[in-house]
Write a structure and sequence with these properties.
With 95 residues, the chain is an alpha+beta fold. It has a domain at 9-71: YefM-like fold (3-Layer(aba) Sandwich). Helices cover 45% and strands 16% of the residues. The protein is built from 4 helices and 3 strands, in the order βαββααα. The protein has a 3-stranded mixed β-sheet, with helices on one face. β2 (34-38) and β3 form a beta hairpin. The longest helix has 21 residues, at 49-69.
């Protein structure tokens, strides 16, 4: 996958429906976000769909990492080391 362009363009808030359509076409064709301004202040961003998908993946990953950090792994996952008596026994070893 090609890396997306991170530098957004800027447009003043479109006044007509066709102007909105032009902004959407520009974003979709150039795969570049556009920040919409109203009265000189940034109002919203129109982003390519792949940006939204990447953002959703990132947020889901962060949520999973946060949830995993809350788990007491030492209590849930037993030690993977074999019992010490395996090494102390004079009997044949199971390995």
């Amino acid at each position: 996958m090609t890396l997306p362009t991170l530098t957004p363009g800027h447009v003043d808030e479109p006044r007509a429906v066709q102007d909105y359509a032009d902004v959407l076409s520009q974003v979709a064709n150039n795969r570049r976000p556009v920040i919409v301004r109203r009265g000189g202040a940034d109002l919203a961003a129109v982003v390519p769909l792949e940006y939204l998908e990447l953002l959703q993946d990132l947020l889901a990953r962060q949520e999973a990492e946060h949830a995993a950090a809350q788990i007491d792994w030492d209590r849930l996952v037993p030690s993977s080391a074999p019992p010490q008596q395996w090494f102390d026994a004079d009997e044949p070893r199971p390995f």
